């Protein structure tokens, strides 16, 4: 399947892409804030290694939320 350019997308496809982008930014910002405020004892692994991991979209933020935080 060939990728479509923005101009070739339907209005519905454009809305889905825009909403997905906003969700991605919000979840990443939430993870960064949580990582900054959470004590190191409640984070699996070094906190400084999670910072670049959060930049790997969308895997990094999801991995942090699922595996990176201790309860």
Automatic annotation (TrEMBL):
Main location: membrane
Bilayer-crossing regions: 48-67
Domain Cardiolipin synthase N-terminal: 26-69
Superkingdom: Bacteria
InterPro entries to which the protein is assigned, alphabetical: CLS_N
A Pfam family of this chain: PLDc_N
Keyword check for Signal: no
Keyword set, alphabetical order: Cell membrane, Membrane, Transmembrane, Transmembrane helix
Subcellular location as annotated: Cell membrane
Membrane topology: Multi-pass membrane protein
Annotated protein name in UniProt: PLD nuclease N-terminal domain-containing protein
């Amino acid at each position: 399947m060939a990728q479509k350019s923005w101009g070739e997308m339907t209005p519905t496809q454009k809305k889905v892409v825009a909403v997905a982008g906003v969700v991605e930014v919000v979840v990443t910002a939430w993870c960064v804030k949580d990582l900054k405020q959470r004590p190191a004892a409640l984070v699996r692994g070094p906190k400084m290694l999670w910072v670049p991991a959060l930049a790997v979209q969308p895997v990094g933020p999801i991995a942090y939320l699922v595996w990176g935080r201790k309860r």
